[in-house]
Every structure is written in structure tokens, then in C-alpha cells.
Amino acid sequence: MRFALLGPLEVTLHGQRIALGSIKQRLLLATLLSRPSETVPTGVLVAALWGEDPPASAAANLRTYARGLRGALGGDGSWTGMPHTRGGYLLRVPPGGTDVERFDEAAFRGRRALAADDPALACEELSRALAVWRGRVLEGLSLPEVLEPWATGLEERRCHTEEDYAQALLAEGDLSQAVLRMRRLVASHPLRQRAWGHLMLGLYRVGDVGGALEAYRKVRDALVRETGLEPGPELTRLHGDILKQRSTTAAGDSPPPPPRPRQLPLITPDFVGRDEAVAVLDSGLRPTDDQAARAAGVVITAISGMAGVGKTTLALHWAHRVADRFPDGQLHVDLRGYDESGVVSAADALQGFVQALGVPQARIPSGTQARAGLFRSLLASRRMLLVLDNARDSAHVRPLLPGAGSSVVVVTSRDRLQGLVTSEGARSLTLDVLSAQESARMLARRLGPRVEAEPDAAADIVALTGRLPLALAVVAARVANHPSFPLHSFAAELRPTGALLDVLEDGDAQRVLSWSYLALSEEAARLFRLLGLHPGPDLTLDAAAALAGAPVHSVRPLLRELTRLHLLTEHLPSRYLFHDLLRTYAAALVLSTEPSSGVFQARERFYDHCLHRAHAAAVLVQPQWPAVVPVPPLPSNSGDCARDAEAALVWFADERQVLLRTVAQAAACGFETYSWQLAWALTAYLAPLGLWQDQRTVQETAVAAAERSGDEVGEAMACRLLARADARLGALDSAERLLRRALELYERLDERTGQAQTLHNYVELCYMSGRLAEALEHGREALRLHGLSGNRDGEARTLNAMGWLHAAAGDYPAAIDHCTRALERQRQAGDRNGQAATLDSLGFAYHHLAQYDRAVDSYEEAIGLFRSSADRYHEAETLVRLGDTLMVTGRTAEAEEVWERAAAMFDALWDPEANAVRERLAGLREGGRGE
Questions:
Q1: Burial 461-481 (b: 16+ CB within 10 A, else e)
Q2: Strand partners for 577
Q3: Which residue of 4, 157, 449, 750 is most buried, as measured by CB atoms within 10 A?
């Protein structure tokens, strides 16, 4: 049976078209085919058939349409290709059974040929892929809203394949066909710059220079009109080449250049003076004659000075001025070295840097030294500018320094960084306060003619603020907010404060900062105080609303007021930063002015906000995990939570640093239950990414918090999750001690699910320790407990784990028995990733029993499921094992093809396993067998 969706919906059996019945039955079939061989939830099917307003009889009507569709497809009631599963319906589709799959496979082969510089084969395969399309997706059916994203994705893949085909045609010299196809494509998709580039190139190569230039004019007009943006650099370069009659290549022909990060934050327009300091920084760009005789090396300048003296402003102003001298980009990080709520570790800073340089998250090593080594390797051949802001000391910043190359590093710190000067040869630049003339110029930039009108009062303000840039900025904001007040009134109010430098040295910033604070409206001033309770490093609008106990729409203008007066910085869209002095000031204000009950309630609202959003995201990311029952949400808790797994992952990535700090702060402030429950939710994100050190940190806090509050449920959960982190970090003895404690607590609580989960983790620990017999014993007990508690998802995962243990011990029939039972449960539950892992285990066992056809079938199904759940790493692993089986059966060409795919995937993930796969390929091509 074959299903066609790329055009009118059709089903054929032995070449004969099948009548599909009513529109509702056709919509039901289309929705099932959007997720072939997967359970489609009943809610999705109802939405597809009736939209947002289904009838009361929708469930019964759905069953009727399902019976009718089964009859149309299967002919009688014995057909099992469309079973009703738990939660929905499933349509079993054989491999290659849909035109979508055939299109994707041919397009993949064509892109591979194009990458291998074989345009003739690429043309053949891409033409075959596009020939599958007979019209619009599901043409003739009114697409329901739930299918629109799927259909849009298919159309995008078609357009991309059309562009690939045009690139291959251009390479083969079939210019007229390329021009014809690209004209059609841009007519329906006028903003696709790659298609316009191919059209321009084709027209130019056939001699129609005017037509090529007219095409550029049209795409530019369309882009400016629809998006407000000019054409991208590739299209602009192609246009320039055509104008100058230079040799041209297609837009998109070359591989994308390496990432060139541009991370420098926005600078303020009122920078003044600092001529000598700028000259010192400039000298690092121009080596002396003696240095010019040597290979260019890394230049490090350490800018030190007191808080608020303008170290960051100087560094960023200079960095923006010379940014064009660094063709490979600029990196920036605020290390928050003196932030009481926690510094940014070198490991976290390195993670951000290597991600910016193109390393995928999954391939970033966990240790600081390993990340530093990777970072140094990436910078060895680059010329980049690094701004390492607010370092605590030399040790803090040392792992972030390049080891070789011609990059320039600027470090700012309150510390003199003498260690960098002594050991790394850094140049020391100590920054003092502004001169009187520079300070007056800074005030004039901010206040305009008012300074000229009252020069004596302006001079008094300069003197009374100690010429400290931060203090000048705060006072200037206060003055600007009262344009009718004379300057001398502000000078008179400042006079009793004495020397500002002494005030700041004593840690009493209130007299400096109070003017900006007093300029706030009453509501904004209260918000400023409450934001001092936030753990940092930055905060969102929703978090501010939670602390204030107010709706988002009323908090947004207050945040604008705070940013206008420079009490808060919007460093990313809707994400706000405190300067460390301002955070300290706000924290002191809230504790001294707010009643203790108000502080307690604000903290509780914030922790409640974090917990319930994190809990909802955790359930989406790890739907098979038995979820903790969170503290009931407060009545004030409102706002959107993530709605799908992808959104949940994005939310966790944005909030990870805030949540790490919040777990610790909640525990320290007496909110132990919020602390351990938030740690559980955060671990749902940390564990799949292998962020074991972070998991260890939060679970250590959670264990202590639960112990302190006498919460045995929380302690048991935290002990179990801490044990898993310890095991992955190699602390097996500690992990075993924690698992025993978790078991003891769960047994005391008579909590079978928790006991079973802990024993499942014990299976993994024993396997890592080489204790297979003990691992199997724990697995059997975990199965028994899962059965008693009715946790079929947990039962399936443990069955697969035991199957793998049996396979590791060489008992392949037992492995198959366990994994087959696991797979049945996972299919019923719709656990795609779990099915893929179990099928991989089955393939391994069948291979070693010489049942190679069954091994191939298992591996291929696993690969499809891994792909559908975007698990590229395990898809690549299974491809390697599939290649091993194909080699044994003599199917060497197919083995070579799947190993090439695996190597490409590992390369994309920056995984060293790619080298092992290439060794297999080399052995195959030399007539040997990959091992």
C-alpha cells in the first residue's frame, strides 16, 4: 500500500487507487500520515476534524470515521494496519510507503552527490525527488490548523530541493532549465535569496546581463518592502560580480564560512577622555620593531580600578573602535567576579565561547581544562578580540586566555591582576577617576546647555561625586529627570556626603545611588527594591512581575523607567541586568524598608513562579519521568508556560543560570521544598545534556534542604538524582552510598515507584562497576516494583536495560526476550525514543545470533525513530552497528553508504567517533572489514 500526500491525497494498492470516502475520513487519514507509524493523540485528531469547537459527540464520531477509514484501507474488519492505541490512533506505514519518504530519501542522495562534487548524479537524484510532487501538499483538502506547520515544513523542503537542483543544473551547464525552474520558484516565493541568486547566475551565464541585474532589483525591492532589510552578503557580492563582469559562482555554492561572532554589547554615546588609556590599548595593535621580527603572539591588557571607575566603558568603547581589525570576530563575557550571588565560572564562560564558535552543545566537554583546551585550539589560527569583563582575579580569567595566535585580550577587574602581569606577560593599565575637565564634558554630554548656564554648580557636582563615572551618570540621570530644577540645588544636596571615593570604599553606596532612586515613581521604586531579592545573573519581565506580585502589563513600564535612569540594563530583549553596586544597593534597601512579611511573600512568589514554569517544562522534556507533585501554585501565579518540548528546551537554556542560583537561594532562605522540587525539574534538562556537574551541585543543595526540613520524599528523590550525577562523574562509591540511602527512605515511605527508579539507577551503577549479576538482580526487583505500582513506562525502560545486560553477558535469547517485552509496552505508550533504544538493543542481539535480516530490520526502524525524535547522536551510533551487520552479509555498498552517513552525523556533532567510522570506511575500501 502506497500513500501520496505531495499533491491530492491518494492511496494505491497494487497500482489500483482506493476510494477513501468522506472529507472527514480523508482528513483523518492525512493527519495520521503526518506522523506515520506513530500514535496520533485523540485531541490532535479531533482538532484536525473539527477545529477549536468540536461537537459534544466528537469522540464517538471519531470512532465512526476511524472504522470507515479502516474499512476503506483494509477491506474487512481483520485488517490491523490502523489500531486504536492508548491515547489515540496509529497508522502502520511500511518503509518507503509514502511519497514524502521517497522524496526525502532522493533529496538526501542528491545533496550528498552535490557535496561530493558530482553534479550529474545530483541532477538525477534531485530530479527524481521533485518528480514525486504532483501539486500542493494535500491539494484539494482544506488544511486544518494542526496540520499547517507540517505542511509548511514540507513546502520548505521542496523549495530547498528546488534550489539544490538549480545549483546542480548550473554546475552541469543546463542553464535554461535552471533559469526556468528558478523563475517559477521566485514567483511563488519572492523572498528566497538563494533562488534569486541561482536565477541571476543563470541569466548572466546565458548572456542576459540586463535580466540578471533586473532580477537583483526585483529581489531587493521585495526584501525592502516586505522585511525592511537589504539583500544578504552572498546576493550582494554576486550582484557586484555581475556588474564588474567578474567570474561568478552561485549563492550558496560554497560551504558556509566559520562563525564570526560579534558579541560586543551596546556602548553609551557619552564616552569622554581616557586618551592615555586608549593609547596604551592601541599600542597592543602595533608591535614594536623588536616584536615584529617574531611571529605575532597573544597580547593581553589588564585594566584594573575601583568599582564604577569606567573599566567596562573604556574596554567596550575601544573594542568597538578597533573591531574591524579582527576579521574572525569578537567575544565578550561579563564574569561578574564581585557579584555576591555568584560569579560566572570559567567553565560556563568557555561554554558560551565555544558555542559561539560553532561547537554544538552536545560536543562541549564537561571539565574546565578540557573546555579551555578546545577553546585554545579554536583560537590558534584565528585573529579575534576578547573582552573578559569583571574578572575576580588572575586565576578566574586564566583558563579563558588563548594559547597561541594573534588575538588580543582585554581583561577588566577591580583586582590588579598582578598574576597575569607576572606569569602571562599581561600589560597593566590602572584606571583612575576622570579628570575635572573630562567629568565636566561628561555632564555636558548628558545635560546640554544647563552645564554652561551654571558652570560653578556643575564644577561642584563634579567635585562632590569624586569624578567617578558611575556616580556622575547616576546624578546626571537624576538632574535630567527634573529639567526645571537648578543645578546648584543638586550640588547643595550632594555636599554633606563628603568624598564619594571614601563612601564607596566603605561599601555605603546609598548616598550616591539615592538620587536616581528618589527620582523614580513610587511603583518603580518598590520594584527596584524587590528586584534586589532576585539571585541573578539577569532577570525577565515575568520574574519581575512575580517579585512585585503585579501583572506583566503593569510592570513593563516600570522596567522601562528603571532602564531609562540607568538603574537597570536591558542587555538582551526582555532580559535585564543590574550593575553589582546597584544590586547591592537594592538588596540593602529592600531589607531595610520592606516589612519582613513583604520580603517573605516576594520571595515565595518568585520561587513559585520558577518552580511551576520549570515543572511544566520538565514534564514536556521528560514525559516518561514520574513527575514530583509540586507545591500548589499561589493564586498570584500567572503567565505562560512552555507548550511543547522544543519551547521547554529553549526556556531551560535561557533560564539555566537563574535556576541554578535560585535552587541555592531558596534553600538558604528557608524555602526548602521549593528548592528540592526546583532541583528535580532542572535536572530534567541537565541530565540529557550531560551537565553532570550542575546536576551534582543542585542535588547536593536539594539533599541538604530536604534533610533540614525533614522531608523524606524530597531527600529520597535528591539522593537518587545526586547518585546518578556522581556515577557519571566517576564517584561510584559516593553514588552507591546515596542510592542505598534513597532505597532506605523509599522503603520507609512504602513508595514503590521511587524504589523501582532507584533500583533502575542501581542497575546502571553495577553495570559501570562490572557487577553484571548484581545488576540483573536489582533489575528483576525493579521490574517487580514497577509492576506493583503500575508504572509501565518505567517497566519498559528497565526491561530494555536488563536486555542490554543479558546481551553484554552473551545471553542473547534472554536479551531478545526482555527487549521484545519492553518494545511492546513502549509502542503502546508512544515512547518513540524508548522504542528506538530498545530496537537498537534488539538489533545488537540479533546480529550476534547471526539473524542478520532481523538485525537490519531492527536497526532501520530504530534509525527512523531516532530521526523522528531528533536524536542524531544515537541515530549515528545505530547506523554504525547497521553497517557492521551489512558488512557481515556482504552488502558492502550499503554498509559504505550508512557509514558515510554516520561519519557525517558525528562530524556535525563534533564527536571523535567520526574517526573510528572513517577507519571502518578505509578498511572497507582497501578490501578489509571495518572493525
A1: bbbbbbbbbbbbbbbbbbbeb
A2: 569
A3: 4
The C-alpha cell of 828 is what?
503502546
Span between the terminal Cα atoms of the chain, in Å: 39
Contact partners, residue 644, CB within 8 Å, separation at least 6: 620
Tell me the β-bridge partners of 540.
575
Cβ atoms < 10 Å from Cβ of 270: 16
Of the candidates 167, 227, 156, 230, the residue with the CA atom closest to the CA atom of residue 194:
167
- DSSP for 364-400 reads S-SSHHHHHHHHHHHHTT---EEEEEEE-SHHHHGGG
- Packing angle of the helix pair 193-205, 148-172 (nearest 10 deg): 20
Q: Are 21 and 68 in contact (CB under 8 A)?
A: yes
**Who's near 712: CB < 8 A, 6+ residues apart?**
706, 745, 748, 749
* 306/286 Cα distance (integer angstroms): 28
**What are the start-end ranges of the H helices in 549-644?**
552-564, 580-593, 596-621
SS3 of residue 17 by DSSP: strand
For β-strands 88-90 and 84-85, DSSP reports them as: antiparallel
CB atoms within 10 A of CB 868: 17
Dihedral sign computed on CA atoms, order 603, 608, 613, 618: positive
C-alpha 120/C-alpha 127 separation (Å) is 11
Is the four-CA dihedral 658, 662, 663, 665 of positive or negative sign? Answer: positive
Q: What is the pLDDT of residues 804-822, one digit of tens each?
A: 899 988 999 999 999 999 9
Residue 889, φ and ψ in degrees, nearest 5: -90, 5
The SS3 assignment for 627 reads: coil
Sequence-distant (6+) residues with CB within 8 A of 743 are 755, 758, 759, 762
Range 650-668 average pLDDT:
94
* Helix or strand holding residue 89 (H, E): strand 88-90
| Beta carbons within 10 angstroms of residue 149's beta carbon | 10
What distance in Å separates the CA atoms of residue 445 and residue 137, rounded to the nearest whole number?
60
The DSSP output letter for 262 is: B
Q: Hey, what's the torsion of the CAs at 69, 75, 78, 82, to 10 degrees? A: -30
Q: Name the residue among 913, 915, 918, 910 with its Cα closest to residue 365.
A: 910
Q: How far apart are CA 758 and CA 764, in angstroms?
A: 10
| Helix, strand, coil fractions of the chain, as percent rounded to 5 | 65, 5, 30
pLDDT at residue 74 in the model: 82
d(Cα 899, Cα 920) in Å, to the nearest integer?
8
The H or E element spanning position 663 is helix 645-668
**pTM score above 0.70:** no
The pLDDT tens digits of the residues spanning 410-462 come to: 999 877 788 888 778 889 898 888 888 888 888 888 888 888 888 888 888 88
Contact 477, 566 (CB under 8 A): yes
Per the listing, cell 506493583 goes with 788
Cell of 923: 578498511
Q: What is the CA radius of gyration of the chain?
A: 32
Pairing between strand 299-304 and 330-334?
Answer: unpaired
Q: Measured between alpha carbons, how far is 418 from 428 in angstroms, rounded to an integer?
A: 8
**Amino acid 255: pLDDT:** 42
The identity of residue 554, as a single letter, is S
Q: Tell me the angle at which helices 580-593 and 510-518 cross, rounded to the nearest 10 degrees.
A: 80
